[in-house]
Design a protein that fits this description.
This protein is of the alpha+beta class. The protein has two domains: 176 residues; 139 residues, Reverse transcriptase/Diguanylate cyclase domain (Alpha-Beta Plaits, 2-Layer Sandwich). A four-stranded antiparallel sheet has the order 2-3-1-4, with helices on both faces. A hairpin with a 4-residue loop joins strand 2 and strand 3. Helix 1 packs antiparallel against helix 2, helix 3 runs parallel beside helix 5 and helix 5 packs antiparallel against helix 6. The protein is elongated. The two termini are 37 Å apart.
Length: 334
């Protein structure tokens, strides 16, 4: 299963479970104060919310996309706000302990909504629901609503800032885990993730892959040193990026072996891209290129890599035969 799907399901299950726990606490509050008015109505509302949270936990295990995860979470959030507003209203207005449901909801939204605009919209909805109860319910003590609102705004600000800082850190860690530290190109993991998205988009024909291998790279390392070889690899990545489209990517999968993913390119477009790369690199290094295009050469990354690598090998063999006895590297790559 895709790691992204697993993470989305985990977050959505956590969201639904927290809603269920909150309703469980509210039910406990009602049971402890059964002698107070409207407890039957409140128990009905909170009990319904508890069941909805448990159903949400089940639904979260079926989540496969961001949209489906948002639908589950948003449904639970709206239901929570309605039940929190009714519960607080029945329990005496915003001065009731039941009004804490708005505070926990505001904190949850700030801590679990990554998109800033969506988070702000949901917080406006949450605070608006609280103000609606304050306006229609029993009057609260002087300053009560002000202190509640100020407290919610402070908590929202702190939680949102912390959530965004953690999101940036996770994004940076994911990027580092997917990049080759020497050249900044994708590594094998990054290539697999990028190709998965390219295949998922379903472009036909495409995507296309180009396998690149530098000619006589070992001689560069032997004659000029590894620092010169490292600099050459970085230059190859830089000039290749310059001739690629923004939606394409280059990955380094070995010493001097690279793979270019052309997200929406047929075989002719792949050959054109290969020619551009060869021309760009030719000024300081020789490069051999093999290509493969979905669906004609396969529908998976490994199939396209195998086909492109075979064609790359044939290109190298043809060049060695053309070079004849002057080539002394024994037919090995690089």
């Amino acid at each position: 299963m895709d790691a992204g799907v697993i993470e989305r399901r985990r977050r959505t299950v956590l969201s639904a479970a927290l809603h269920a726990v909150s309703y469980g606490v509210a039910v406990g509050y009602c049971l402890l104060t059964l002698a107070e008015p409207h407890r039957a109505l409140m128990l009905t509302g909170y009990g319904s919310g508890l069941v909805a949270g448990l159903v949400g936990c089940w639904a979260a295990t079926r989540v496969t996309t961001k949209a489906s995860g948002y639908r589950v979470s948003f449904t639970l959030l709206v239901l929570t706000l309605v039940i929190a507003a009714l519960g607080a209203h029945w329990d005496g207005g915003v001065a009731s302990p039941a009004a804490l449901g708005f505070v926990t909801t505001a904190v949850f939204v700030a801590s679990h909504t990554p998109q800033l605009r969506l988070m702000l919209a949901l917080e406006v909805l949450t605070i608006g629901s609280y103000l609606a109860v304050a306006a229609t319910g029993r009057p609260a003590p002087p300053g009560h609503v002000f202190v509640y609102l100020a407290g919610m705004l402070v908590l929202i600000s702190v939680c949102a800032a912390q959530t965004r800082a953690l999101a940036r850190q996770r994004s940076q860690l994911r990027a580092l885990a997917s990049l080759d530290p020497l050249t900044g190109a994708l590594n094998r993991r990054g290539l697999a993730e990028f190709a998965t998205v390219a295949f998922r988009n379903g472009c036909r024909p495409g995507p296309s892959l180009l396998c690149l291998d530098l000619d006589d790279f070992k001689r560069v390392n032997d004659r000029l040193g590894h620092a010169a070889g490292d600099d050459l690899l970085r230059r190859v990545v830089a000039v290749t990026r310059d001739v690629l489209r923004a939606e394409d990517a280059i990955a380094r999968i070995g010493g001097d072996e690279f793979v270019v993913v052309l997200t929406d390119a047929d075989a002719a477009s792949a050959r054109t891209a290969a020619a551009r790369i060869e021309a760009a690199v030719r000024g300081f290094a020789g490069v051999s290129v093999g290509s493969a295009t979905a669906p004609y050469d396969g529908d998976r990354l490994d199939q396209l890599l195998h086909t492109a690598d075979q064609r790359l090998y044939l290109v190298k063999q043809q060049r060695r035969r053309a070079a004849g006895p002057l080539l002394t590297d024994g037919g090995a790559r690089g």
